[in-house]
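dude i think i finally got it to work??
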Amino acid sequence: MLSLQESTLSEIFGNPDDLKFSSCMILFALASENQDDLFRKALARYCGGRMNARTQNMLTKRVRSV
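look at this
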């Protein structure tokens, strides 16, 4: 993914897969202990480094209920 020249996730995957990719990168980035992993690099490149608050909230609620 990081080597692709397309500028947006929508151009690469289309909708709704662009949203799924973003959510997966957030999940994996939060699970990773490495602050310089590929998941955060993908978020930086394709999502402006931002983690979607809705995805984070869903993950937080899920962890609390387990």
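The chain has one domain: 9-65.
im so relieved honestly
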